[in-house]
Amino acid sequence: MIDEELGRALELSPCQRKAGRRLIQYSVKSAWYILQQQKLSSAKYVDILKSLECNMANFRKVLRFGRFTDHLYLALFGKVSSVKPIAVASTTSKLAFAAFLLCDHILWIARVGLIDTDTDRWSKSANRYWAISVCVQLLIDTYEIYRIVNSSKISDRRSDIYLLLFHHRKDLALDTLKNLLDLIIPLSGTNMAVSHVKKELVFVF
Q: What is the 3-state secondary structure (H, E, C) of 112-178?
């Protein structure tokens, strides 16, 4: 595939390629939203950016089409943590994300005109499952942070807890931040986010 060949040429991992595509799409989305809100450009250029962002979103959906089965397999048969609460939470999150992908696949098929179904219902279901998956991931992150905070390694320097957390577990700190930002989108889709948050931040993240 072109995406894989380009990733290998740039020495990018699959996760980095995924993050790069997402960053570009959301950057374009933020650009047209800011231009539209601040009236910094004509409607023609805003429409061009909207069309570009829509095409990029569809491209990402095509790339992840069928990944529902992968995540379902990982949830049912994948390696789990030896810590039981983490194992249960991780499996729950994977099952919820698999359900989100299934709804997203059906939604995409409906929007390209291959089937006729209630897209609003499937969209709300997709956002609901996505929100559940992210919330459970945040619970896992919180548990891991709690363990680190109470470890002997950093317990004597509580005043610098955030810097120490980032130093000892940079991956955990970034994952927590990512999940917090990710939560805005599905909550806005299910009308659970605060109105001003839904109106402004969802276009950035």
A: CCCCCCCHHHHHHHHHHHHHHHHHHHHHHHHHHHHHHHCCCCCCCCHHHHHHHHHHHCHHHHHHHHH
Q: Helix or strand or coil: residue 74? A: helix
Is the domain of 99 the same as that of 177?
yes
Residues 93 and 185 both lie in one domain: yes
Residue appearing with tokens 């991931």: 137
Q: Are residues 90 and 150 both part of a single domain? A: yes
Is residue 203 in a domain? no
Number of domain units in the chain: 2
The whole model's pTM is what? 0.67
Q: How many CA atoms lie within 13 A of 43 on its CB side?
A: 0
Same structural domain, 107 and 183: yes
Distance CA 130, CA 177 (A): 16
Segment 89-147, tens digit of pLDDT: 999 999 999 999 999 889 888 887 888 888 889 988 999 999 999 999 999 999 988 88
Question: How far is 171 from 17, CA to CA, in rounded Å?
Answer: 17
Residue type, 99: A
Q: Which residues contact 123 (CB under 8 A, 6 or more apart)?
A: 103, 107, 189
- Please give the residue range of the domain that contains residue 56: 17-78
User: Is there a single domain that holds both residue 105 and residue 59?
Assistant: no
Are the C-beta atoms of residues 135 and 169 closer than 8 Å to each other? Answer: no
